[in-house]
Amino acid sequence: MTHIQKLTVKGYKSIAALVDFELRPLNVLIGANGAGKSNFIGLFRFLASVVGDNFAVDVQKRGGPETLLHYGSKVTPQMSIDIRFSGTEGVTGVYENGYRITLAATQDNRLIFAREEPTVRGAGYASPKVYSLGAGHDTARIRSDKDSPSATVSRYVLDKLQIWRQYHFHDTGDTAAVKRIHAVNDNLRLKPDAANLAAYLRKLKTTPIFESSYDRIVETIRRVAPFFGDFLFRDDAGEFIELEWTERGRPDTPWKAHVLSDGTLRFICLTTLLLQPKSLLPDTLLIDEPELGLHPFAINLLADMLQEAAESKQVIVSTQSVELLNAFQPEDVVVVQREEDASVFKRLDKAALSDWLADDYSLGELWKRNILGGRPGS
After folding, report:
1. Looking at the predicted structure, is the pLDDT value of residue 179 above 90?
2. CA-CA 20 to 30 A from 373: which of 7, 153, 156, 278?
């Protein structure tokens, strides 16, 4: 498994300067509204856009450089990102890849590359070897780097820049994607908004090597929703499918997704995501405030699933839930707060909290007492 090892960000939205920030298998961001938690998680979606096919268009859709740069281009004329990945075993030993970019604002409201550099560090090398892909372009050259001396490194770096996936299951309204009819063969991966949930669950149930994961998903849902029986998959579904389910003890009466409460439907999405076979999960999962609308008992189960996922994958999650925070260790938690008009990120130190923890205070209680920071006005 490859995971994000270290990150440096300067000039992106509320993040003025985040230098050599280390990421663990489990990273739980806490903080007040507007502190910068969502900007941190959104950074990875932005970075995926940087190396995508339509970066120039995506910049405009996001509001242009004035929205993306810290307090606009007059204050911050450019941003830089340096991301490094965990070591990978290769033919010549362990090597580490990275990607460095600087994006500068132009007078015609674009972002262009002032620097683009894939990097590699082999076993025994104190510093990485850096390859320059030039400057002045508005589309990432790492995608088209095929014949140059850096082509092999670019290919490996580009692969690693696609290890993460952000999930957002907040929309459970009448027109939510998860409630719509979709193609039965749309089941390669669970979509970020669970738009293909029914097709994906059907694949898990009908694939022998995935069936145990499906059974575990259903049993976990029943712990939160005891009335839930099972998902319903029709033999004559044809090319399209929608989410259907039955009540426990009443297998002959089908119900559709719109009958489920918002919290139950979100929990179903989260459970499917986190308990699916590990081989189908991306290496890094990003989830923004997954506790929204969940009962405290469901939040406790969610915490268990997040911790289990972090045993084999990397998890980055933001939360404002005291109940969820209580389930984690101090070293898993990153406090985000605004200082001098910029987001500051600080990982908790268990030793520094030892006296409080020895008195049986939970992390949630310490957060409510503003001992940890990350509260409004702190």
Report:
1. yes
2. 7
Instruction: Count CB neighbours of 267 within 10 A.
Output: 26
CATH of domain 4-164+333-358: 3.40.50.300
Residue with tokens 């084999």: 312
pLDDT digits (tens, 9 = 90+) for 321-374: 999 999 999 999 999 999 999 999 999 999 999 999 888 889 999 999 989 988
Residue 305: CA atoms inside 13 Å, Cβ hemisphere, count?
28
Cβ-based burial of 209 (10 A; exposed 0-12, middle 13-18, buried ≥19) = exposed
**DSSP annotation of 99:** E
Please, which pLDDT band fits residue 377 given cuts at 50, 70 and 90?
Answer: low
Note the helical H segments in 163-294: 197-206, 211-224, 262-275
DSSP symbol at 297:
H
Domain ranges of the chain: 4-164+333-358, 166-281
Q: Kind of pairing, strands 228-231 and 244-247?
A: antiparallel
Q: What is the pLDDT of residues 108-131, one digit of tens each?
A: 999 999 999 999 998 777 788 999
Alpha-carbon distance 374 to 335, whole Å?
A: 6
Quick check: 135 pLDDT over 80?
yes
Distances (CA, A) of 163 to 23, 44, 282, 283: 14, 10, 6, 5
Q: How far is CA 359 from the centre of its chain?
A: 34
pLDDT digits (tens, 9 = 90+) for 296-327: 999 999 999 999 999 999 999 999 999 999 99
Tokens 């280390």 belong to 22
pLDDT of 378 strictly over 70: no
Q: Minimal CA–CA distance to 259: which of 277, 271, 247, 273?
A: 247
pLDDT for 119 equals 96
Q: Report residue 309 CA to chain centroid gap.
A: 12
DSSP structure class, residue 17: -
Instruction: Judge whether residue 200 has pLDDT over 90.
Output: yes
